[in-house]
Structures are given as structure tokens and as C-alpha cells.
Amino acid sequence: MERYTQCVEKYPNVWNTACSYQRHELARCSETHPIMLKAKIKCSSVFDKYERCHKKYPQDHSRCSSSFNNFLNCVETVAEDGSTS
Q1: Which end of the chain is more exposed for a tag (fewer CB within 10 A), N or C?
Q2: What's the predicted TM-score (pTM) here?
Q3: Could you give the CA distance from residue 1 to residue 67 in angstroms, rounded to a whole number?
Q4: CA–CA distance from 48 to each of 42, 44, 54, 83 (Å)?
């Protein structure tokens, strides 16, 4: 997730194409990693808000940065909870 986030931040105007490899790797990880599977469930509403924003503004990721950061914070919280249980 960190590599994808860094790529998106580095290429805000062309992240959709520039970060396709990182997005693919994140998707692959999210299908198998236990914490990512848990985050998928617990953070689904936060991710849905980000996805709606992304669909509304596909060429301007900066408009969705707050919803993306909310999603990252949710995933980090799930990861921290998962590492202590």
C-alpha cells in the first residue's frame, strides 16, 4: 500500500497510468493478506467514498486526497489492531 500511495503522490496528474503496476500489486495483496482482507471489510464505506470521488474526478486525484487519506488511516488502524491481537 505504501508503494502505491507514494506513486500516486509522485504522479498526481497521471497516477492512473503511472501507478498501474503498484495498483495491481496492491490488489493481489488485498486478496490474500489477512490484515488486508480485514481492512477490506472494516474500511469498505471509507473506500467507497474515495472510489465515488475518484469516479467523479478521474483526472484530478488531488480532489480526492482527503478521502484517500481517510482510507489509509482506516487501513493503518486495522493493521495496528491486527498486529496487537
Answers
A1: C
A2: 0.65
A3: 15
A4: 12, 6, 10, 25
* pLDDT tens track for 39-51: 888 999 998 998 8
- Residue type (1 letter), 4: Y
Q: Name the band, by pLDDT with cuts 50, 70 and 90, for residue 84.
A: low
DSSP 11-57: -TTTHHHHTHHHHHHHHHHHTT-HHHHHHHHHTHHHHHHHHHHHHHS
Average pLDDT over residues 32-61: 87
Q: Distances from the Cα of 62 to the Cαs of 5, 10, 16, 70, 82, in angstroms?
A: 13, 12, 12, 14, 30
Report the amino acid identity of residue 19: C
